[in-house]
Amino acid sequence: MGDRAVRALAELRGLARDLAVELGAPSSGRFPVDALDLALSVPLGPGPEPLAAAADALVATLRERLDEALRGTMAFLEGHVYCFHTDQPESPYSSPPNAASVFAGYAANGRPEWQSFPNLCLARREPRVDRLYADPPEVLALVQTADELSGELLPGFGRGSRAYAVLGQVVLGLVPRDLDLRGRGAERVALTLQIVETTQGTRDHRLRLNLLGLPAEAIASAAADADERSPAEAFRKVLRTARQRIDALGRQLAIAARRGEAVDRDALVGQILNRLRTDVLRVLKVRAHRTQHAEVRHQSGERPTSLALQDAHAAVDGRLLNDTQRQTVVVLGPKQRAHVFTPTGRHVTSLVLEPGEVERKLERGRWRPLDPAGVHAFRRAIAGSGRG
């Protein structure tokens, strides 16, 4: 009896693989879906007709489940929200249309919708929305649930999808693109931090953090360019911790499912999102509500542009550096002061450096000594300006 059952399962596996290849799965190599759980109806009465009808139903069910399972293997694409309207992980609607946009949920037809973060704050009657325009601007963050984001979906357009689901998110803004809270020159962006569930087959559920609005590589680069106590590095660590918590929750849910135990997934997801919101606001809070321009002025009693030019004239050649990424001139002044100029001598910003920050940026190649031609051109550009 056992051998007959094995042969029947082998035949069913072959049928499933052939159907999967028709749906676009690779014909060789590791199969992308480990297993499918099916409710199998076996007619026991006489005659071929019931068997033929059951076989047709089985093929249709297999095709539907395989199609959804295969979508789950490719549904997650970081920086994008799955578009049920086009049935693709990447589409004209799957990523933020501009720097201020956050994911606002799905339309009924499965198309991702976006909204500017300030408008979302206004729509939700966020009491501190005016702080987005303060000097310096304050970062705000909101938590949104799966019902808010996916409640409008229609059947056939993502409603109840086993392949991909947004379980909730934190939206925040507006933060400098370079995550340098001391500067004023960088474009400010809104971010969407989502917990996404993808399913490959029946059993392989996976939870992941999806970051929209700023690539993970940009955050890592900003952290590498700053010191270990910078907001960029702190934010990178917050995201790393969030990923670890999400992975742990995924494992917890998988174990509970195998044991048949009931778990309030939505409550656990909510705990992670609320903790993420708290951590993000903590690390992106503007320190002491004072810009670094104001800090430089406070320390010296001078206006920052005047002080920057004085420090630039007083600096020896070895204190003039080239920012290799931004193509600007960095002047190292006394008392950990630094001033950023364009090569034509226009003052961009001033800041107070952390201990060891100069050495770290020199070691990483972000800053390099300004070459003699650059020194000569810069001194000519600022000649006659700001001498005391």
Gist of the model:
With 388 residues, the chain is α+β, with helices and mostly antiparallel strands. The chain folds into three domains: 2-74, no CATH class; 101-288, no CATH class; 292-382, Nuclear Transport Factor 2, Chain: A. The chain has helices at 2-22, 48-74, 117-123, 146-150, 216-225, 231-259, 265-283, 292-300, 304-314, 357-364, 372-382; strands at residues 101-106, 112-116, 140-145, 164-176, 188-200, 204-212, 320-323, 328-332, 337-341, 347-352, 367-369.
What labels would you give this structure?
40% helix; 19% strand; 11 helices; Nuclear Transport Factor 2, Chain: A; single chain; four-stranded antiparallel β-sheet; alpha+beta; 388 residues; five-stranded antiparallel β-sheet; 3 domains
Tell me what you see in this structure.
The chain has 388 residues and is an alpha+beta fold. It folds into three domains: 2-74, no CATH class; 101-288, no CATH class; 292-382, Nuclear Transport Factor 2, Chain: A. The chain is built from eleven helices and eleven strands. The strands form three sheets. Strands 10-9-8-7-11 form a five-stranded antiparallel sheet. Strand 5 (188-200) and strand 6 (204-212) form a beta hairpin. Helix 1 packs across helix 2, helix 5 (216-225) crosses helix 6 and helix 6 runs antiparallel to helix 7 (265-283). The protein is elongated and about 105 Å long. It starts with a helix and ends in a 6-residue tail after the last helix. Mean pLDDT is 82; it is low at 288-303.
